[in-house]
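Example 3.
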Amino acid sequence: MQIARHNRHGRLGVDFARGEGDEIIAGTIGRFAADELRPRLREFESARTVSESVRERFAALGFETLDLAEEAGGAGLGLLARVRTNRLLAEADAGAALALDRFAPAIYVIEAFGGVEALKSRQLNLGQSDLRFALVMDPGAGDVAGARVAGQVAWIPAAGADVLVGLGPQGAWLLKQGFAFEPVGGSALHAAGASSVKFDGTPILAWHDPVRAAQALARIRVYYASLIWGVLSDAAGFSRSYALDRVAFGKPIAHHQALAFLIVDMYVAVERLGLLIEDAAVAIDAGEGRAVGAAAAAFVDAIEASRFVGPNGVQILGGHGFMRDFPVEKAMRDCRALGLLAGGCDAAREQAGAALAATISERIAA
Amino acid sequence: MNNFSAALNAYIEQVREWGQREVRRAGLEADRNGAPLPPDHPYFAAYVDFRRRHPVPADDGAVPEGPAVRMAAINEENAYWDRGMGVAAPGPGLPAPIVTAAGTPEQRERFLGPFRGTDIPRWGSFALTEPSGGSDTAAFRTRATRTDRGYLLNGAKCFIGNAARADWVLVQANLDPEKGRAGQRSFFVERGNRGMTGIKIEKKMGLRAYESVSFILEDCEVPHDNILGGERPERTSKSSAYGATMGTLNTTRVGVAASAVGLARSAYDEALNFATQSGAFKSIRVRDRLEVMYRQLRAAWLMTLRAAWKADNRIPNIVDASMAKVFAAETAQDLASAGMEIVGLEAGAGHHLVEKLFRDAKALNIVEGTGQIQRIIMARNLVGLPR
Ligand SMILES: Cc1cc2nc3c(=O)[nH]c(=O)nc-3n(C[C@H](O)[C@H](O)[C@H](O)COP(=O)(O)OP(=O)(O)OC[C@H]3O[C@@H](n4cnc5c(N)ncnc54)[C@H](O)[C@@H]3O)c2cc1C
């Protein structure tokens, strides 16, 4: 299998190297995550938000619009840069990563339908630092253009928003009014807040276009998968270092083969997930036909990896893992919860299968 | 899900009725509060009353199943309603069989007697695990030193169930470190002993319905009479040392497996109910998942029952018990996780039972011998894995 990537010289080919720009981004975000987010993990969790000062510092780094197209006022670095950033933020705290992203993945819907320009004429300026977006999946979105939309979702990891974006297989809509957030307990990702959302209103923008809807969903899936990637990378890394320190039966527990192999398998799960995510991001950035299927597959893989790595991160710490003094219990909850978003696992599996079937049919026809 | 005798089924029916009416609700309340219900909560008095009216079937032949199968059946049903409340239930708990097996007659009377026929909720507790390690029981660092007045205990214990509310905690300590495991003895530390300090109730991911307590033993003095089995155990009971404790853990392993099956069944039911009510059951993917869940659940229950049945029939069951413990615990985790996926955003919202089960289940693969330790036990027996 050949991995098509734009390499540093702008040519397509196999290239796993990271450019200088990537390293700078990674260094900056990595430091921010380690210094500002990680030490305050439980504080943000109880506060159900990140502090204003942390928000400001994040905004000052200029990463908010990293992957938005330049025409939309972004840095135009593409989804690949975003997933790498997300991974680093989520290694520290996925809830905080969501809280810091005021566009949530909702902006991908607006971008996919070419709606960024239209926002301006609706007095919605993306540069306005307190303007927040939220996304809900609405199966009926795009069915009838211009009609009222109504429904509710039991949970989204957000405390509120100024703009609500709905996405379904047929299209999308955008509400500026006519929706209400109600706080709920939430199973995880508490730093982002947790709400149920009711909506009943007339969209200020609405689109019907299944192809674009699928493209938006692909980005959203990769976005969430990359947060899962970060959470799992942390769970695997944290439990690995714990296992090197903790001694039982006369040696570090990591050196008992049963745990050594488990640690190795967890590492492999995280690595393969990372590769699938980056591959999907590259496909999306390059506008390749396989992007939708690759994104769905990456999301499914993230969920499968979560089921394995999440609970085993706790397991390696034994009883300590079950206590809130350590971050692995939070990782287990966070990755489970992230996998419920973007329409869930079964829908992604369906789409990954459909994409595969389509390529096979094409090949047979040829 | 079983073919028990009518007598056992009748008892389980009472547990079910009680569970549905009281236990589930109490467990959810504790989970929401993020803390165990206080010892004077009316639930506990009602529990004691329930147990007085419906005592666990005794070994008098009225229920034909043996004690291990009986225990498995009851644990499974209890855990279906709430595993955490099952552990929080008043009573002497895990140490009861240890004290019965290894205690002197006076100790049995003094420490277990107050639990009989009382209407006051009381707890006993068992402290084995230490902050530096729980799996490697031979490496425990808590020391006991004999003095003229009694024994001085020094060390630390962690995650000890019900320890802050217990009348006494049975503490494992080493009296003769040179003998390694063989030097270990158990000591009753009674409530209010000032040498038991730094009591901390841990904040847990799940199973919040019962206290898991960490504490320090600092020159904690107990009378000579408080050493389990007496000062010269060989005169009272051969099995008062390390063996009694480990022997008990071998039998309770099947009980933990049964609890895991109960929790798993609860997750399965939640997923199934949601799928049928929401119409998701029509999806072949959801039906496939439920089929996988049901098959795994059924296998876990059969494994558990067979391990229990072998124990009752004095057939060696060490591999069966470990297999049941690890498979059932992993089943509980898998089913709760799959259940969350089927329930979807309702589970994400944090108010659906399946989300609580997801947090509760994890501990079952850790307590009373982790999944790795169970695999080591099996491997020793199946392929002669060297120690
Ligand atoms: C909710 C809860 C309630 C509890 N209640 C009680 C109680 O009432 N009383 C009590 O005494 N204890 C209690 N415990 C403690 C429990 O028994 C221990 O947590 C357990 O025995 C594991 O010990 P540990 O946590 O120290 O993990 P460790 O022993 O440090 O093990 C860490 C990891 O290393 C693995 N490991 C260790 N040795 C090996 C090996 N040789 N090969 C491969 N892997 C290995 C383990 O499987 C685990 O994954 C409770 C724990 C919990 C979570």
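Chain A touches chain B through 44 residues (CB under 8 Å). The pocket of flavin-adenine dinucleotide is lined by residues A 246, 248-249, 253, 256, 258-259, 315-316, 318-320, 322; B 126-129, 133-135, 159-161, 207, 212, 363, 366-368, 370, 372-373, 376 (CB under 6 Å).
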